[in-house]
Amino acid sequence: MNKIEVIERVRKGETVYIIDDWDERAIKYSPELGKNVESKRKGCSVVTRPMSDKPVFESTLDGEEVTKEAFERY
Length: 74
Prior knowledge:
Layout: H1 3-11, E1 16-20, E2 25-29, E3 36-41, E4 47-50, H2 54-62, E5 64-66, H3 68-73
Antiparallel strand pairs: 1-2, 1-5, 2-3, 3-4
């Protein structure tokens, strides 16, 4: 997914959910999080990480947009 597109959508008030199945990482971009994201590995708890974090960046590029429900089930 294009990270610039994700950032622009978040700036407009949208929440964007991405799952990278290869790296087994789910990411939530939300206006409320500022320059952070919520990230979790498959079956693990959510952690807050900076958008600039390398694994977050790579998973955003490699992942696909999903629904809130898919993110929460991951």
